[in-house]
Amino acid sequence: MEITCEQMDVLISFYLEGDLSRSLKIKVENHLRNCSTCRAKFDIIKSMLSDLKNSLDDKDAVAASTNNQFRVFQNNLSAYVDNELSQDENIKIKKFTINNKQARKELENAYNIRKLMNDSFRKTSMDARQDFSGKVLRQLNLGDDECYSFNPILKIGVAFVLTVLVLSAIIVFSLTL
Question: Domain map of the chain by residue range?
Answer without folding.
Answer: 100-177
